[in-house]
Amino acid sequence: MQEEKVQGTPEENPGESGGESTLTVLVATAVNALIAVLKFVAGLLTGSVAMLAEAVHSVADTSTELLLLTALRQSARRPDRRHPFGYGKARFFWALIAAVCIFVSGAVFAFIEGIRAMLGSDAEQTLAWVAYAVLGGSFVLESISWLQASRQVRQESASEGVSFRTWLRTTDDPTVKTVFFEDTAALIGLLLAFGGVALHQVTGSGFWDGLASVLIGLLLTGVAYILGRTNAGLLIGRQANQRTLYALRDALAARPEVDQVVDMLTMTVGTDQVLLCARLDFDDRLDVASLERACVEIDADLHARFPDLEDVFLEPVPRADPTMRQRVLDRYGGAGARRLRDGLNAAD
Length: 348
Prior knowledge:
single chain; mainly alpha; Alpha-lytic protease prodomain-like; Alpha-Beta Plaits; 3-stranded mixed β-sheet; disordered N terminus; transmembrane; Cation_efflux_TMD_sf; membrane; transport
């Protein structure tokens, strides 16, 4: 795969992705705010705890989207003296807080009210048709938001040449991933609430309504865990994806001034923002002036070919240095060290 395809062309800057992400979040915010009001009204009129759990679920989703909008705004700030590597990780931080919000605001309420309904005396259900009408309308509105998020995921995965599932697993854009998982959980939650209301109406037992609420709580817990784990990994510091990693390695190894790539460290410092530190064994025939000029040219070449690169740090080192070799072995293992030295097709 070409480097430009891995990293995106200069015309496909992060700003465009950020604009699409903002649209996705705005659509989800408007939809969830409207749905939350409808669900609360239906929950109060029908006495369904599953409907109330879904109402709180929508409130949690709305709060989450507001946090994601904050994430998008904060992460767009330019680097400054106090934050020389920029504010890209602000998007990961606020997305992590959003995951916590999903659990605390939505799942905990659903668990408490669901268990209370399952263990308590049967409550009379009234105006079930209101619940059905709100659930049906909510499903349509949630589908609009879900389709927007799905469309962006498909576009992003196609542009990177990976599958839909692979993109969701490896993306460094937590905003779109959060909206997609939220909307998916919302659609499943609506079906669970519908089942709870229907079984309550048929059997006259509030147990099923409570069970639906507990299942919604479990669903939200699962989504919160997945999103929390993803954003925690990005905050701690995750390397660039393997395609980008080896494309960078090949670009460095192809330089005539470089005898061997000794070590290479990458870190995702924001959505579509990568930091590169490379230790290179340069041609011993280079004098100091030539070495300095080579470093400047390599930096310019990498930035031109890989627009997602924020900063590039190059360090000349001898390939035979035992301390350096041991560091590489400790970090990547024998197979990883050979791939770093010989490229992606190196034998394991």
